[in-house]
Fold this protein.
Amino acid sequence: MNLLEIQEITERYQAENGEIFALDHISFSMKEGEFLSIVGPSGCGKSTLLSIIAGLVSPSSGRILLGGREVVGIDPRIGYMLQKDNLLEWRTIWKNAILGLELRRRLDRESLARTQELLKSYGLWEFREKYPSQLSGGMRQRAALIRTLATSPEVLLLDEAFSALDYQTRLAVTDDVYQILRRENITTLMVTHDIPESISMGDRVLILTGRPARVKELLPIDLGPDRTPLSCRDDPRFSRYFNHIWKELKEDG
């Protein structure tokens, strides 16, 4: 059974220079625990699609089902991580980690214990009284992820979540985050412009056309059950996936 279903999502909106046709009948589904990477030409509407799934934007037509129930508006079952970590500099790492729980008025013993366990499991417990400015970029991103996971989302949306990091840090963080999400069995959609990143993290890659975005291909990625984002880049199949996706994107570039 599918956990998430995107059904015929179309989006048109009015801009100063006229109507923009952003998304054209986008449909796909995801099973629990699956990781889906989304790539497409620049400006094709990838982030718009994520905003609609997150409930921040209402589509012109179509609907989203999560666990068989339609998503209407912002849904607590869906977590969203943006390009910037958006940690509050005046709050400690612990206070940042529980921010989502505060906003949802869920500071109960069970939720706080889960947040504490997440910080311990992923190497940030000893930094809980530090401030974001005292952490490296990779640690900040991990803290932002823990803040999102503390609310126990069923689906996580990542919108270019690693693009602000330098290349070396980005490789380490994607490996780190991938293993956290696998361990927590979080269903994840990731928008990225980085083709190697889409391959190394995704179970499938959703390739979109240029605007208005349509589904061009849903490409299964088979790089072994024990792969990690770092290890799979040495797999000879990796370059074949890269060349295939590059060719598809180039046709719409």
In short: The mean pLDDT is 90. Residues 63 and 166 are 37 Å apart (CA to CA).
